[in-house]
Amino acid sequence: METASGKSVHGSVAFDNEKKMSLDGGEEAVLVELNKDNLLGRAKAKITEAREQNLRLKQLLSQLEKDYQSLQKHFYEIFEQEQESKTLSRKTETASEDSDQQELLCLCLGRSSSEPNNIRKKSNILVNGVGDDMKTNGSSLSLGVDCKIETASKPTTKNPSSEDIVEDNKGAKLTPEILPPSKILKTKEVQGDEVSRDTQTKKPRVSVKARVQTPMMNDGCQWRKYGQKIAKGNPCPRAYYRCTVSPTCPVRKQVQRCSEDLTILITTYEGTHNHPLSLSATAMASTTSAAVSMLQSCPSTSSRQGQVTSVFSPSPIGGLLNFSHFQDTSQHQFYLPNSSMSTSASTSHPAVTLDFTAPTINTIHFDNCSNTTPPGHFSTYLNFSSPYSPSLEHN
DNA sequence: CGAATTTGACCTGCGC
DNA sequence: GCGCAGGTCAAATTCG
């Protein structure tokens, strides 16, 4: 039975056949046209999508910049308030305490806090001399060199601060000849000064323990590997790196995985940068330098070999720590968020360990500071693995 | 091809 | 003085 539908079916088949016939003639050209239209449409859609995404990213970036600037501004405000109150309280102190005041070390983000405006001016002078990209920052980000200017302007003190000792190491870079660190050390030894040789040759070290999945902690500096060794008692090799930001920079670091927990990376810094640092590098350098300074300004700790002293002093300002526990009156102030800190003076090198692996403050062990029991908590974290972030992230 | 990394040799300090 | 371990050097190798 041939119905209308049957006819129509036949008819459609016939149409298809006709179409096929026609395709046989210019088939390829039509297909190419169709494909072109298709591709064009897809490409347009992709471009539109990419544009939208680009817009979103731009907005996100500008938002991030705004947040960062406001945070920076806020930080300055708090910082200056702190300094004003300190200055007022210190004005009442005697002249003898002034010498101690000179030893005040403030290393927050590499900006000296004792006289922020003056230091900024000084740092500008310095930066202009160096000619680094830090010019654009408008603020001092060069911790070590700031300190140097400060020390250079100072007369010699009976009890040199730790900064002085650190800067003594850097003093080698001021020699006309450009020498590698090892040569510098030898030169200094030849020059003598038996008394201070120990403190100069045995550079203080700062170890940073952090949970880092990457092979190396991103601390904002450029490093060049110059050696690797298998240390006794640890199957993981220890890598030796040298700072390559400046050819004369004496800073070295050792990187080693913790044998007990392979996720923990132990980075040991030695020396002080003699060049301006990036923002992210400055945060780390400030913390480590301050830790070294603290260690060196505590002769009692250094004299007791092998003794470990853990320190923790919470501050009302999120993550800003005031170290004022030592026998001298100097105060050390720097960011050390959510971490524990221990100092030790072995026979070879005085060392400070900053332990960022502790998830909460409750896990921190206090050996020698029963008076400074830390009831508080911090909301700040150091993010070493972030390639961009200025290391200090406020939640 | 230059820069960075690897790796064995060498140096130095320290304990016995 | 000797051996060990940590640290550095520098030639060889790899990488971009």
TrEMBL record:
This protein's UniProt keywords: Coiled coil, DNA-binding, Nucleus, Transcription, Transcription regulation
Identify the Pfam families for this entry: WRKY
Q: Where in the cell is it found?
A: Nucleus
Q: Which InterPro entries match?
A: WRKY_dom, WRKY_dom_sf, WRKY_plant
Q: Which GO terms describe its molecular function?
A: DNA-binding transcription factor activity; sequence-specific DNA binding
Q: Name one GO cellular component term.
A: nucleus
From which residue to which does any coiled coil extend? 40-74
- Chief localization class? nucleus
In this chain the WRKY domain maps to 212-278
Q: What is this protein called?
A: WRKY domain-containing protein
